[in-house]
Amino acid sequence: MPGELRLLVVRLSDSFHDFWPILARDVGAALAEWVPATDEGPPPGAEVVVVAAGGQEADVAALLPRLAVPAGIPLIVVGSATSHRIGAQVVAAGAADYFALPEDRDGLRDAIAAALERRRAALGRAALAHVEAQAHAFHEIVGQSPALRAVLERAARVVPHGDATILITGETGTGKELLARALHYGGPRAAAPFVELNCAALPAALLESELFGHERGAFTDAKIAKPGLFEVAQGGTMFLDEVDHLAPELQGKLLRALEQKSVRRLGATASRTVDVRIVAATNTDLPTAVQSGRFREDLYYRLNVVTVELPPLRARGDDVILLADFFLAKFSAQYALPAPPITPEVRRALLTHPWPGNIRELRNAIERAMLLSPPSTLVLAELGARPARVGSGDALPFPATLADIQCAAARAMLEATGGNRSEAARRLGISRSRLQRLLEGPSPDTEADGPN
User: Fold this and answer.
1) 70 pLDDT more than 90
2) Are residues 167 and 270 in the same domain?
3) Quick count: other Cβ atoms within 10 Å of Cβ 418?
4) Do both 114 and 42 map to the same domain?
5) What is the distance between the alpha carbons of residues 442 and 444, in angstroms, rounded to a whole number?
């Protein structure tokens, strides 16, 4: 609940000086007074501002701009002259109303009391909305497992702190973007933009323009000036997904933007101040990337203020069933199909499948099975879930030639990633073309190809 509200009296004259404490007491506000003759500006934080100008009404118009009263805060001028012309002049200069004392004493008291009540109600609604937002920040993240609860409890501690930089880690498909959105919309920056950028989706040259913007003529196709996403996200949150894919030169520019809180458009000579909270995400082991020279150590430490690691689906127990129910209801409504029950056979398959693609894989599996199965059923074959296979049939061959071991490792990793070749190559630390050659089988020059 909001605390005691403040009434600020700007004393342009000493007229009625003994009235202000009585007025503040009557309307239930704390009294603050300020004399414009001082070098310092007026104290901030008042809910109503009264300019006491008895006998100095002619000086009000010049004073009001100096006060810089925020929008939504009533500014009332109190004088001793009863002239309608003076009242019109001060209202034209920016005041909300004019009262002449002592005749308008009761009207002034009622006007201030009403203004404070409106402000109190507005602050109450804002406080309640903030509490509700925090309480429901993670309501879209489905799951009750201890592994997930521990992560969300950790994340909830930083929700109120809108300036804290957060690094979200975890395997692909674990819901890093969903968590980033929850952190934004549950926190103090919720009313400002949430801007997302996949750092692996664009080449370095285009990515730089997306992040920092460009001026007209900065390069061949720059027909008009364009603000970067840092500017678009002003006051809000920038979500940098797959941040490990940033080119080295962009890593340095991102670090400068974070340290200096300013960006410079391509082709510009001046920097622009930005107020943006950064939430970054990666499915890569960034410390290893730092050790190998692929990621700047100073940028890693700058991003790694608070780390939140999302657990893989296979470590979340019965959450897979809760998520399956959630997706069944979602797609039932989307496709106007009856939601099928989860049979014991389907349940066993869901719980024993390793889900290398995590929640994204589960979502796609449920959608496919609902569309291809007879109404009100889930055909296990269409679901595609299968137990994690363990045994000598899937073990890497050994003893064997190095070429055979490499090919078997490539096939095993491809299976572990659900057929995602880019992800399999990333986990193996090789290029996609190298992975393709290994999948095609050993060749005489396999061992000479090198790691890339």
Assistant:
1) no
2) yes
3) 20
4) yes
5) 7
